[in-house]
Amino acid sequence: GVEVGPQPQGVVRADNLDKMRKIVKHGLDFVQLFNEGREFPPCTIEVFKIMEKVDYPRNKNDEVIAIIHPKLQDQDWQPLNNGDPLFLTLDGEVIAYTGDCTVYPTFINEAAYYEKKQAFVKTVKIKLTAKHIRSCVL
Question: Which intervals hold domain AstE/AspA barrel-sandwich hybrid (predicted)?
Fold first, then answer.
């Protein structure tokens, strides 16, 4: 599957539709070239690995007691460091990130994830290395 976003439910955004078309085209081009026997050299790419889903702070009655901090809103895939603001309580208290490494949050404050108790997803940036590949064309 390909998910290109963020995009509200029931909304079609031209920029995201264009990104989706381009990535699907690149995928199909790769499959065609691979099936034709083209050799692809080794490569290294950076990817984001999902580490954990983070819920909103809640009280003992399981009610949300803080919202996404304004400095985190719309910062998907941007580095989040120890001490950076995460949440803002309704009383104005800032709840900061307390982690031992830089993370890259995504799906921040997505409406579709409220019911799943997910404020955002923490990811880390890693490098993947692929050896060269080539199909055996008969």
Answer: 44-123
Positions in the chain short of pLDDT 70: 1, 5-6, 137-138
Whichever domain contains 85, its CATH number is 2.20.25.160
Nearest Cα neighbor of 119 from 91, 97, 80, 87 is: 87
Contact 35, 134 (CB under 8 A): no
Closest CA to 87 of 74, 72, 107, 106: 72
Instruction: List the domain range (segments joined by +) for residue 27.
Output: 1-36
- Catalytic site residue from 3, 36, 46, 115: 3
Among 108, 128, 129, residue whose Cα is nearest residue 119? 108
pLDDT in tens, 31-54: 999 999 899 999 999 999 999 999
The reported pLDDT for the residue numbered 138 is 53
